[in-house]
Amino acid sequence: FAQGLVWNTWGPIQNSARLAFGFSSWDIALLVFWGPIGFAPCFFFMWLMDKKGLRVTVLLTSSLMVLGAGLRCVPVSDLEIRKKLIHGGQLLNGLAGPTVMNAAPFLSTTWFSPDERATATAIASLLSYLGAAGAFLVGPLVVPSPNGSAHQLGSGSNTEHIKDRIEAVLYAEFGMVSLIFSAALAYFPSRPPFPPSVAAASQRLSYRRSFCRLLSNFRFLMIALAYAIPLGVFSGWSGVLDLILTPVHVSQVDAGWIGFWSIVGGCVVGIAMARFADFIRGMLKFILLLLLSGATLASTWFTLTCLNSVTHLPLTTATLYTSCILLGIFLNSSVPIFFELFVETVYPVPEGITCGVVTFLSNVFMGVLLFFLTFYHTELSWFNWCLPGSCLLSLLLILCFRESYDRLYLDVVVSV
């Protein structure tokens, strides 16, 4: 939760950050871009989780977050130095991303029984998205927006007030991250005294053999792309949602609420879908087909709404709210279902390695989009068209995918 909150600090308040710290559109996009850049050492964290367990990995991850959040709070009067410290802090927080995104299936397998695993995976994996949603809520509510007060933009007192409120948010996030690190340092065991299932106690493939198995498994590569492309596009899109909605005269506060409810709705529905998958096993592909069909329709609606001068669809706050929230619900709720399907497809490859590869691919797609965004930030209509295209491609890949449940077979049949 904290890593997602810190990562998405600047997108929802980008107008205020420009005024207070002199950020450009390139700076705002780069602050979001540090998230996918932080996935560069993803394979090291996979190895660390596989060899050293959860405790060592989580402690290293949370220490990076503490250091990153602390750098953003260093009180330097020179704005250029301050901006560099903020960028450095965002990079260190991005380095915590691999563990945050990849550890959920490993955590659920290690600690939970087969009829609880999907639910545990959903809660653990979606909390990062909920943290990003919290940034949409906290930022615009705490930090005043320069929108609607253009006559004061040259006022030094107004700028200082906005800057003070942003720094209050930074200090609060630093305190929260430090508290989490202290708690993990005090007590965070790697595993329970007794394994909760046969799969949790079974031997896994080595690090090298795992990569050979993943890269040679065509079915895994199909669903890896089905996950990475739409989720990578959506993550980059939501990170600069305020920037996208500004040309259609949506205020910073409204953009924050749209982002907040789209992610919260996805978290709620994702946990409900995962609980359904725990009760009725062997339905993961069917659930994904439903979710991706909804995501394709919702993203198409949003894109056509933004082109109201051509399509003549009503461009109102209600339509933007509805289409964005539905898109977030369908895509975010698919994350834990994808994770469970990955693990079932390539078992006995360790969960951390499996999910590490797919989240790395997702961040590659996200990084490529944000890279283009830094150069083409004046024209964002192409970014909106990437959404329905990626969702449709993912839907077609899932339609062609042949599902299997190797880990579930081991737990249900072998244990009996």
TrEMBL record:
It catalyses: pyridoxine(out) + n H(+)(out) = pyridoxine(in) + n H(+)(in). One of its GO terms (cellular component) is lysosomal membrane. Keywords: Glycoprotein, Lysosome, Membrane, Transmembrane, Transmembrane helix, Transport. It is found in: Lysosome membrane. It is a multi-pass membrane protein. Its main location: membrane. InterPro entries: FLVCR1-2_SLC49-like, MFS_trans_sf, SLC49A4-like. The chain crosses the membrane at residues 28-48, 122-143, 168-188, 218-237, 257-274, 286-304, 320-343, 355-376, 382-401. Mediates H(+)-dependent pyridoxine transport. Belongs to the major facilitator superfamily. PANTHER family: MAJOR FACILITATOR SUPERFAMILY PROTEIN-RELATED, SOLUTE CARRIER FAMILY 49 MEMBER 4. This is DIRC2 protein. The gene is Dirc2.
